Amino acid sequence: PAEQAGADHSAEQPPEKANTADKWSEEKKKNYTERKYLTVEKADEVVWVRARVHTSRAKGKQCFLVLRQQQFNVQALVAVGDRASKQMVKFAANITKESIVDVEGVVRKVDQKIESCTQQDVELHVERIYVISAAEPRLPLQLEDAVRPETEGEEEGRATVNQDTRLDNRVIDLRTSTSQAVFGLQSGICQLFRETLTEKGCVEIQTPKIISAASEGGANVFTVSYFKTSAYLAQSPQLYKQMCICADFEKVFCIGPVFRAEDSNTHRHLTEFVGLDIEMAFNYHYHEVVNEIADTMVQIFKGLEKRFQTEIQTVGKQFPCEPFKFLEPTLRLEYTEGLAMLREAGIEMDFYILDKYPLAVRPFYTMPDPQNPKYSNSYDMFMRGEEILSGAQRVHDAQLLTERATHHGIDLEKIKSYIDSFRFGAPPHAGGGIGLERVTMLYLGLHNVRQTSMFPRDPKRLTP
Ligand code: ATP
């Protein structure tokens, strides 16, 4: 019924719902064009596009539509005396915003740039229009409000959308150019992480998320019922990535969900986030691993700069910020001097490492500093002054590991298989865990980790 629904443009017919994806005519397939390719090179050609109606404005005998595909949009003109009938203009004007339509039209070069669209040099003169899926007329939020910079809202009294409304209606909010860019860039971070570490000879591993012992201590772990007993949701892949090192995988990484039952209602804490984890055996000094991890971050920053300029600029229109700055090799400061420097002058760099934390503030599996047992061979990495990674050399001696676990009051019985992994020879190793949402947030200079989690989980939100 699709062809019927569309072929008749008469005003008596309301925009019909039609299930048509598989019923495209040969003609449609031949001329189908993606929005981003609608440029002057296509001038005077007849094309088909499938898109959402972003906005619609009827004026007398013509109707202007802005058609959107992801972050690309183009102006379309339905006009009596051009290519459309009077009924067709009326039909077009009645299509609700966000409906999905198929449109056939001629691409025309325009004299004056269309500033409000991404495709500024052309417009589409519409010949036929089909409604493929109509949106309900009342939208829970307006996309143009959802991309308005806060300052414009405050200074000019124009509407913006608050965070809860966005998150309650996340599917609509994710359609905005800003969200499309944020999650496009986030996908790029994972891709670059994978590419860089694979290039460095690491193996990508998968670790269990349902586990029998809390990897980071018992305080903030989710318990789940597990048949006749109970289990935990992994707070990190820590114990398992180390066991992979004991099993001779040498250099491993993984990307996966981690869970924290922390009642932290802050801009940087989620109860479920995506961990980017690394663990590597080393030969001489744990700084070999620190350098590899720092270089991985640098390769990610460089890749983002190179491949994601459009996304960075799109987000910057709504959330302006200074471009991300980093040095190569990365600035590394010792914890004690670093804190003093930060306090005094502030740090010019957006990305830096603090090394050698006090042993007391780190988890039981952290290697003490052999020169000064009050300190440890551990480090954090920071972006724009906020922590994005925690890491350390790990204890690889079963005896010392047992002592450290006991000192932290950990039930040895529960981590027996982990400790046993070190009894049959284990290479010195170090690693770290990175929070994907924090890296995305801080790279783009955003201010809330919920903006960079597609469907965020926090102490007060479990849906959508
Ligand atoms: P914080 O001190 O900020 O609470 P943490 O020291 O508990 O973090 P780790 O357990 O060391 O963090 O986790 C490693 C990384 O995982 C952090 O550097 C951060 O990027 C990310 N991360 C940790 N907890 C959260 C969280 N609740 N929500 C989002 N990301 C997190």
Would you kindly provide a written description of the structure presented here, covering whatever features stand out?
This protein has 464 residues and is an alpha+beta fold. The protein has three domains: 3-133, OB fold (Dihydrolipoamide Acetyltransferase, E2P); 143-173, no CATH class; 177-452, BirA Bifunctional Protein, domain 2. It is built from 15 helices and 16 strands. An eight-stranded mixed sheet has the order 6-10-11-16-15-14-13-12, sandwiched between helices. It has a five-stranded mixed barrel with strand order 1-2-3-5-4. The protein has a three-stranded antiparallel sheet with strand order 7-9-8, with no helix packed on it. A hairpin with a 2-residue loop joins strand 1 (46-59) and strand 2 (62-69). Helix 8 (177-199) packs across helix 10 (287-307). The longest helix has 23 residues, at 177-199. It is elongated and about 85 Å long. The protein starts with a helix and ends in a 21-residue tail after the last helix. The model is unreliable at 1-22 (pLDDT under 50). It binds adenosine-5'-triphosphate. Residues 216, 260, 262, 268-270, 273, 387-390, 433-435, 437-438, 449 line the site of adenosine-5'-triphosphate.
